[in-house]
């Protein structure tokens, strides 16, 4: 079968493309604003990418169009597909119907940490010999990509609460029919499609309604909002996990000393080295360990393999050194994730923390989280804000309470020059965006590569 994917360079749809190709399908795709790491991964796979949405792509005559949620009515190619009455499905529906029906499924859900938790889960199951299939919303060097069909009975999928497509407004995760669900945390996000936290809780409740009683729900008991989801109804045994010492937890991950963690479960207490930083990553590890135990993996073997997990691209990924300062790339774009990342950096910093932030997501551009940003950046020493998009709020006014050096930019070139001027030895520079930052990353690497 030939499938043509609209929005192929999104992290999720790029994973769909990789899975379809591995399954023996011919895969082509199109998108706009193509940038690494996903564009690089697709090119390496030999998948043909077409820039833009020209209706001329109908001449490819695919058997099926798979439509990402970046596509809406008015898109020229989508309008041509509709006019011609050609077959199309969403990415989550294709995944559910063509890959997951023959697998046991672990779905990793939550507002924050889904990608890292999913990658941790896959890594541990691989090291335990499970050979899982997976789809991660990012590129994981240790997994050699973001998606793989695998050979085992389990498939691990990052389970997003964002809507499925313009023609299916349910959350993506309802298509996956999981045996094991991880509920890592829950906050208000995606203000472009949800009006309130209660709306998101309702979608999570729909997920709970389809988890079999023979499965498992791994719950982060440190989160204050998840109990409301479970109170609506849960028909599946729960495995409570914690990274803060919550006594309700059956499985707990503790920070012992720098570079080490300890894990306790059913009378076992296992210490191990730890390559990551921050309380948020300890929470992610507790959730991932819970998922692996629910799949039947050995705890001691999981903990041992977790000690070698090195993380995901664009999650505190080291890029380059400038004037002796390390520059890291991070995906954080929600106030809670921003605060968690900065907190993790300050655990090991020697110099200043310089944050470069792009308010790019629909929620952030709307100003929904504007009031929370000053608090989120509180532990940073300097703040450089970049935006090439029109915002519904004034950056200078919103961040006037920031207690440190602050400057805003609308030029990636000017921002790159400012970073080069301000970064000093022992500083840490963190680039925070869920987008391309106007090509800033590539510019910094090209200008400062040894």
Explain what the structure shows:
The protein is of the alpha/beta class and 450 residues long. 31% of the residues lie in helices and 26% in strands. α2 links the parallel β2 (26-31) and β3 (48-51). The mean pLDDT is 88.
Distance between the termini: 46 Å
Share of helical residues: 25-40%
Q: Could you tell me the radius of gyration in angstroms?
A: 22 Å
Overall geometric form: globular
**Content-based structural category:** alpha/beta
Mean pLDDT: 88
- Poorly predicted regions are none
User: How many DSSP E strands?
Assistant: 23
Number of helices: 15
- The strand order across the widest sheet is 8-7-9-6-12-13-14-15-16-17
Topology diagram in text:
Layout: E1 2-6, H1 11-22, E2 26-31, H2 38-45, E3 48-51, E4 64-67, H3 76-83, E5 88-90, H4 91-98, E6 104-109, H5 114-127, E7 133-140, E8 145-148, E9 154-158, E10 163-165, E11 168-171, E12 180-183, H6 197-208, E13 216-220, H7 226-232, E14 238-242, E15 251-255, E16 260-265, E17 268-273, H8 279-294, H9 299-306, E18 317-322, E19 325-330, H10 335-348, E20 353-357, H11 362-366, H12 373-376, E21 382-386, H13 395-398, E22 405-409, H14 412-422, E23 428-432, H15 440-448
Helix pairs in contact: 1-2, 5-8, 5-9, 6-7, 8-9
Task: Please provide a brief summary of the model.
The chain is an alpha/beta fold.
What labels would you give this structure?
31% helix; 15 helices; 23 strands; 10-stranded mixed beta sheet; 450 residues; alpha/beta; 6-stranded mixed beta sheet
């Amino acid at each position: 079968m030939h499938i043509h994917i609209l929005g192929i360079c999104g992290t999720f749809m790029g994973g769909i493309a990789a899975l379809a190709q591995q399954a023996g399908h011919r895969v082509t795709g199109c998108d706009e604003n193509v940038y690494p790491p996903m564009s690089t991964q697709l090119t390496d796979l030999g998948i043909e990418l077409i820039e833009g949405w020209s209706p001329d792509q109908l001449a490819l005559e695919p058997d099926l169009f798979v439509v990402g949620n970046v596509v809406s009515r008015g898109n020229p190619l989508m309008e041509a597909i509709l006019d011609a009455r050609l077959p199309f499905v969403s990415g989550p529906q294709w995944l559910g119907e063509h890959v997951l029906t023959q697998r046991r499924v672990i779905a990793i859900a939550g507002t924050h940490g889904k990608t890292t938790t999913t990658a941790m889960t896959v890594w541990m199951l691989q090291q335990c010999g499970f050979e899982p299939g997976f789809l991660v919303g990012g590129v994981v060097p240790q997994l050699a990509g973001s998606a793989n069909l695998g050979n085992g009975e389990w498939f691990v999928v990052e389970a997003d609460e964002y809507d499925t497509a313009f023609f299916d407004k349910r959350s993506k995760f309802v298509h996956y029919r999981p045996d094991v669900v991880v509920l890592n945390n829950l906050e208000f996000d995606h203000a472009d499609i949800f009006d309130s936290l209660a709306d998101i809780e309702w979608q999570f409740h729909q997920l709970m309604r389809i988890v079999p009683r023979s499965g498992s729900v791994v719950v982060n008991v440190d989160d204050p909002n998840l109990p409301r989801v479970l109170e609506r109804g849960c028909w599946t045994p729960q495995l409570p996990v914690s990274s803060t010492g919550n006594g309700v937890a059956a499985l707990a991950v503790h920070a012992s000393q720098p570079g080490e963690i300890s894990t306790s479960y059913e009378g076992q207490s296992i210490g191990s080295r730890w390559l990551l930083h921050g309380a948020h990553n300890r929470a992610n590890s507790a959730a991932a360990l819970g998922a692996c135990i629910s799949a039947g993996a050995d705890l001691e073997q999981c903990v041992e393999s977790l000690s070698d997990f090195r993380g995901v691209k664009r999650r505190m990924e080291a890029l380059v050194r400038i004037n002796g300062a390390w520059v890291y790339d991070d995906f954080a774009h929600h106030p809670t994730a921003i605060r968690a990342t900065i907190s993790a950096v300050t655990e090991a910093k020697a110099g200043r923390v310089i944050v470069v932030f792009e308010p790019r997501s629909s929620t952030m551009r709307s100003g929904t989280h504007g009031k929370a940003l000053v608090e989120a950046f509180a532990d940073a020493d300097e703040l450089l804000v970049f935006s090439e998009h029109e915002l519904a709020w004034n950056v200078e006014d919103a961040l006037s309470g920031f207690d440190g050096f602050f400057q805003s930019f609308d030029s990636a070139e000017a921002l790159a020059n400012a970073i080069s001027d301000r970064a000093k030895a022992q500083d840490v520079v963190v680039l925070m965006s869920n987008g391309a930052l106007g090509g800033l990353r590539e510019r910094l690497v090209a200008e400062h590569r040894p």
